[in-house]
Amino acid sequence: MTLAAAIERSKRNREDWKYTDLPALLARRAQNAPMPITALPATANDDARLVFVNGIFHPAQSRFGSIPSCILMGDERSGYKLTLGEHTCLVAQPVELVFTTDESATDEIDINLSIDIGANGRLTLLERHLPSRAFSTIDINVTLHESAKFVHGKMTSGGAHIARTNVNVARGGYYSHFGLTRGGLPMRHDIDVHLMDEQAQAALHGVMLLRGGDHADITTRIAHNAPHGVSRQMFKTVLGDKSRGVFQGKIYVAPHAQKTDGHQISRALLLSDSAEMDAKPELEIYADDVKCSHGSTIGDLDADALFYLRARGLSETQARALLIDAFTGEVIDDIPVPAWRDLFRADMEGWQS
Amino acid sequence: MLEIRNLHAAIGGKEILKGIDLTVPSGQVHAIMGPNGSGKSTLSYVLSGREGYEVTQGTVTLNGQDLLALNTEQRAAAGVFLAMQYPVEIPGVTNMNFLKTALNAVRKSRGQSELDAMQMLKLLRGKASAIGLSDDMLKRAVNVGFSGGEKKRNEILQMAVLEPALCLLDETDSGLDIDALKIVSDGVNALRAPDRSMVVITHYQRLLDYIKPDAVHVLAFGKIRKSGGPELAHELEARGYADFAGEAA
Fold first, then answer.
1. What total of structural domains would you count in chain A?
2. How far apart are CA A208 and CA B191, in angstroms?
3. Which of A80, A271, B96, B221 could form an SS bridge with B138, CB 3.0 to 4.6 Å?
């Protein structure tokens, strides 16, 4: 996917891009100062870390740890491919993909990555995008074979970012996604999950922290194409200043996908009168024996709770921070990788200060 | 010592408190009784500095310090504690984290050193077990899923931890059965101290069987209409607030 293709797609499919006017946002972005280039953050452990500079895999800065280097193939032109064989398990050692840029970065960086996890394989991978002055797009195509499991973390820290994650899940497979979106102008992430066979499962979780003139849009589609599929979605958005957040979530259930269990919830916290949240849940159900639900709430911090905390000596800033932490905690606390939880929390603290 | 002089306060331009005069010496417990709508809860909110309550006249000092010049959290640091009638549920914040953050915030404001995790844990466990709250209650989210009695006990725990100079108990008896009332009252009585003033706000005399006041005041139509000893509460119980209904002007 290129930026031009994304713009084209947004024009073709207006309903899908109802709240995100890409050309207008890009024009607004052009007026802002470019984001500074950040150094590669230190890691405390010897986990595998694959670094991409300006969209190109950079072996010298990367570290494979105990995982075989043949796991990653391909190049920036044909796309990268990460392959895990049958029964291969990379859970104890999470893999981190870091996307960064330097002074020689072009205005636009497009990345294509496919991830293939063999039957009974297990992968835990964090996709981490550092602030960049370039416009970045990333297309990730995931294939989970029978009973494969993939825990996918994604962190973005502002800038212009358009992402598409397309996941195919085979029988008994499980895709779990945890996204932390810190800012973005614009940021758009489409997550398409196809549960292709029985007992396939997906759980999508996300936290968006927006302020200033940020605009971030997460659009999910979960297609239940087989019986006994389970999907869970929980998205939390915190909006300050004049930021705008969008969550569009669709659950599709095919006619024969009986006993589908799909649940989706979006909650937003508006910290400013000028912020805006648009939530559009959609259920499209063609089977008659299913359990599907969606919910959406948009509100301010609870005035009674703020007073209660302040009456116990917390400053207003402390009280607000505690309540915001509690709000996002419902997602963060569920992250199965402790190191990611710490990373997400540290990133959130940075956002609040 | 709490000293309230000619306190007038309004909400949204409507005057609710119309000149309260009240002195509660350190070491004493004073009860404020009154009919619904008399201004009892307003008084507790005004004293704890809740936004939306406008003080139009008068002074309030605690041990000589001007409370009205302070915001809510500064008053907490100065020693004001309001045990709420309806303690707020805060999903996602553990009781432990809440108490820890509150105590360290207050200690910091009072110029004391903050407690580290171990000291804090020891202190909180000790205080909790003293009023019959289990460790489990410390790990749960603040007031979420707590029974009425547990919520009120949790208020008493916070009071015990923050060691205030002024305790305001706003209808602490509401929603409690006799057993819970007794447990909460025991908790309050254990916190009576020579350097602490307590104001017990209640509609019913019942609570005062358990928390024995040094003085009783009747608040009606925004003013203290009558003050007396504990026997005044019994009079009110027998005769109701009808005597004060005619003084609306």
1. 1
2. 45
3. B96
- 10 Å CB burial of residue B154 (0-12, 13-18, 19+) is buried
Task: Report phi then psi at B119, rounded to 5.
Answer: -60, -40
Which H or E run contains A22? helix A22-30
Min Cα separation A148/chain B (Å): 32
Point out the residue among A313, A326, A329 whose CB comes nearest to the CB of B162.
Answer: A313
Nearest CB partner across the interface for A322, out of B48, B51, B101: B101
From chain B, pick out residues whose CB is under 8 angstroms from the CB of A322: 93, 97-98, 101
The residues, ordered by sequence, that sit 6+ positions from B191 with a Cβ below 8 Å of its Cβ are B156, B159, B160, B167, B198
Spans of chain A, pLDDT less than 50: none
Query: Per-residue pLDDT tens for B76-94?
Result: 999 999 999 899 999 989 9
- Write down the pLDDT at residue B249: 42
B204 pLDDT band (50/70/90 cuts)? confident
Facing B73 at nearest CB: one of A305, A315, A327: A315
For residue A138 the two structure tokens come to 């990333």
Q: Show residues of chain A in contact with B88, CB under 8 Å.
A: 302, 304-305, 307-308
The answer to whether B95 and B139 are in contact (CB under 8 A) is yes
B16 vs B14: CA distance, rounded Å: 6
Separation between Cα atoms, residue A141 and residue A139, nearest integer Å: 7
Spatial separation of the C-alpha atoms in residues A262 and B131, rounded to whole Å: 44
The stretch B131-137 carries a mean pLDDT of 86
* ipTM of model: 0.94
Q: Which domains does chain B have, with CATH numbers?
A: 2-247 (3.40.50.300)
A251 domain-assigned: yes
**Is residue A316 assigned to a domain?**
no
Interval B31-64: pLDDT, tens: 999 988 899 999 999 999 999 999 999 999 999 9
The closest of A177, A165, A283, A146 to A224, measured between CA atoms, is A283
Residues A287-340 pLDDT 10s: 999 999 999 999 999 999 999 999 999 999 999 999 999 999 999 999 999 999
Contact pairs from chain A to chain B, CB under 8 Å: 71
Is residue A138 in a domain? yes
Determine whether the interchain pair A312/B93 forms a contact, defined as Cβ–Cβ distance below 8 Å. no
φ, ψ of residue A7 in degrees (nearest 5): -65, -45
> Cβ atoms within 10 A of the Cβ of B25, count?
12
Supply the range of the domain harboring residue A16: 3-302
Residue A72 lies in a domain: yes
Is the CB of A311 less than 8 angstroms away from the CB of B158? no
The residue among B151, B49, B162 whose CA lies nearest residue B100 is: B162
Tell me which of B51, B70, B82, B90 to substitute to probe the interface with A (most A C-beta atoms closer than 10 Å). Answer: B90
**Which residue's entry shows tokens 């602030």?**
A131
Contact B93 A311 (CB under 8 A): no
- Cβ–Cβ of B101/A314 closer than 8 Å? yes
Strands A48-53 and A56-57 come out as: antiparallel
| B88 with A308: Cβ contact below 8 A | yes
Pairing of strands A48-53, A187-195: unpaired
What length is written for chain B? 249
